[in-house]
Design goal:
six-stranded mixed sheet; Leucine Aminopeptidase, subunit E, domain 1; 6 strands; single chain; binds adenosine-5'-diphosphate; 174 residues; alpha/beta
Length: 174
């Protein structure tokens, strides 16, 4: 099967794919950055579903590195996959593995739902402070080990700025 890996610059809420990944926080109650943009553009049903998830499955919040799906409200997608990336605490607190887990668990969640395409933001590289180059090398590992083998047909990595996208591309062979 042919798998396409794409990168693009822009607002992830505008990308038409089956599943959009949200860089959420463990409360699942919304926040800034990508999280805020997804809830604003998607409307209140997403938050309502997140509340139900908290009540029924994760009363203490979604653990870092895990992923869970809701529908996507008004977004041009079928599902939002909420995941929690690690907060950067210097690099010796499992940040790398947890970032990798956030990418792979989101991917598996989308695959289980039957999604054929998925769009990711640059998880943890905003307010969570993960260094962008180090995050990029982890995302490239995810691309090689998980995304390229499939089963999803299209994986889109969305960057909020052109320099962020260029930096990511420049880290490919590290
Ligand atoms: P985290 O808390 O996981 O760091 P943020 O939302 O603060 O998440 O940032 C993650 C990345 O997403 C940052 O690189 C930021 O520039 C980018 N970003 C913020 N808003 C959007 C958006 N609407 N679409 C795509 N990327 C975005």
């Amino acid at each position: 099967m042919d798998v396409t890996i794409e990168t693009l610059t822009g607002d992830i809420t505008k990308v038409t794919v089956d599943a959009i990944v949200n860089a959420a926080n463990s409360s699942l109650m919304g926040g800034g950055g990508v999280d805020g943009a997804i809830h604003r553009a998607g409307g209140p049903t997403i938050l309502e579903e997140c509340r139900n998830i908290r009540r029924d499955r994760y009363p203490d919040g979604l653990p870092t590195g895990e992923a869970i799906a809701t529908t996507a409200g008004n977004l041009p997608a079928q599902w939002v996959i909420h995941t929690v990336g690690p907060i950067w605490r210097g690099g010796k607190n499992d940040e790398d593995d947890l970032l990798y887990a956030a990418y792979t668990n989101s991917y598996r969640c989308a695959a289980e739902l039957g999604a054929k395409s998925i769009a990711y933001p640059a998880i943890s590289t905003g307010v969570y402070g993960f260094p962008k180059e180090r995050a990029a090398s982890i995302v490239w590992r995810f691309v090689r080990e998980v995304a390229e083998p499939g089963p999803l047909e299209r994986v889109i990595l969305v960057f909020f700025s052109a320099p962020d996208r260029m930096l990511f591309l420049s880290c490919k062979n590290r």
